[in-house]
Write a structure and sequence with these properties.
Rossmann fold, single chain, 531 residues, alpha/beta, 3 domains, binds 2-acetamido-2-deoxy-beta-D-glucopyranose, seven-stranded mixed beta sheet
Length: 531
Amino acid sequence: MRALLTVFSLAAVLKLDDANAARVLGLFPHTGKSHQMVFDPLLRTLAERGHHVTVVSFFPVKNPPENYTDVSLEGIAGLGLEVIDLAMYENGNVLLKMLGLDNIARQLLDFEPLAEMALDVCSKLVSFPPLVEVLRKDYDVILVENFNSDCMLGLSHVYGKKVPVIGLLTSSLMQWSADRIGVNDNPAFVPVLSAHYTSRMNFYERLENTFLNVYFKVWFRYNIQLKEQEIIERHFGRRIPDLRDLAKNTTLLLANVFHSLNGVRPLIPGLVEVGGMHLNHKRSVIPPYIERFMNESDHGVVLLSFGSLIKTSTMPEYKERMIISALSRLKQRVIWKFEESEEEGTLEGNVMKVRWIPQYDLLRHKKVLAFIGHGGLLGMTEAISAGKPMVVVPFFGDQPYNAAMAEEVGLGVQLPYEQLTEESLLKAVQTVLSAEMRLSARRVSKIWHDRETKPLDTAVYWTERVIRWGYHDKLYSAARDLNFIEHNLLDVAAAFVLAIIVLVLIAKLLLTAVLKIFKASISGKDKEKLH
Ligand SMILES: *[C@@H]1O[C@H](CO)[C@@H](O)[C@H](O)[C@H]1NC(C)=O
Ligand SMILES: *[C@@H]1O[C@H](CO)[C@@H](O)[C@H](O)[C@H]1NC(C)=O
Ligand SMILES: *[C@@H]1O[C@H](CO)[C@@H](O)[C@H](O)[C@H]1NC(C)=O
């Protein structure tokens, strides 16, 4: 037995140099293109380092490296690209606003579609032959997106996968992520993902934050996790372990955030910040008509883009006019990513609408001075990396929080969409174009870049570390295995209160007894006197 153990641990030690040629499986069942853009560089780099990488996703890569196998989910669900209609942001609910509940309502509604998407994809995945074929093979580690679904965890279990799981996040932790590795998400100072405030909250914000922290955990449990469990069990006709327990076997979470942009939260070894790991620092060719437009601007260029999910052309005509008139009062030229424009851009005065922009290349161009964006984390990450100040016009999800953080760290200013007017936009752009703000953005950028290792190298290191040691290297905190009562010390608080009550009762009894004795002795003395 001992000999066997020695051989075993020797093998484990030898594995140190032997994270080589591991078999890596990546499972990405979400339909948002921007999400996959974060994971691709890590997966590609792992293959280039000699691992055998199999990736299941909606977005197969072009020219995959050697030993990289793509399994496409294309066709099983609609893709998330330019799907958000801006018309729905026109009429905020006046009553909700009066009651101060508009922000809560937005957050509750923002998450609703995620459940439907997750269940739709899950119900297709259970019987998708290419996935079944992939899951029948053996792997050394599984990388899975930690977003709106745990379906893949259930399916991996069905096919007998007993290897460490790494969860990848394109953003900060989801509300239901923290418990699976036991990281502190105390709502007194850790804002929920969709918050519109940062970590210093007043009483009302803490109330809202605490409610949402609990609500989203319960919401995920009942609207997604349990339903996915049911989908899987119904399809395979047998019970599987609770998806919540499978989720708790997550070895590591890699989140595409970094504290100097996304705020400080308590970390544990199993939660590693790799913000910016997706940035490709190689320069690509800027289309000549865009470069010419920039070259010919004497006062620099401002970039405007609402990202890949929002369909800019659904913006009401009056708002588009308003933005154009605000921007026409700048001496800078403006490049606006706008799907409905001509092949070589549509020019309106100093504004050029362009169907697609190589955003990060433009942001790093010396002529580009500032960026007006929607606060999607990828665009924000590109802006902070390039050191360009931003006006953030947030819409949904984590964008209001990102906007608030941009302001807090000195990267820019926020301007809520419903407060967007010609004057407010002009003022915001002029603020970020000021020498002070541009200097501040450069400083914030340097701080953000200042790390022990580059974020992609950090992600590779931790992935290979998990490949080397797996379950032997515990990265989670014991909080993972506590229930709600234990975790929040409610039992200890109850014991404490009980102890006080008991002490008070005892004290009272004693006092009564002492008084009685005292009275008795006095009356005894009185009686003596009488005799
Ligand atoms: C791909 O895998 C084969 C077989 O394991 C190996 O010999 C080869 O070196 C790998 N290629 C790269 C680029 O790592
Ligand atoms: C979780 O991982 C451990 C290895 O540490 C394994 O023994 C256990 O069976 C796993 N639990 C589930 C529910 O898969
Ligand atoms: C823009 O200017 C740079 C150098 O200032 C030059 O190399 C490039 O060719 C110019 N591009 C266009 C399309 O005019």
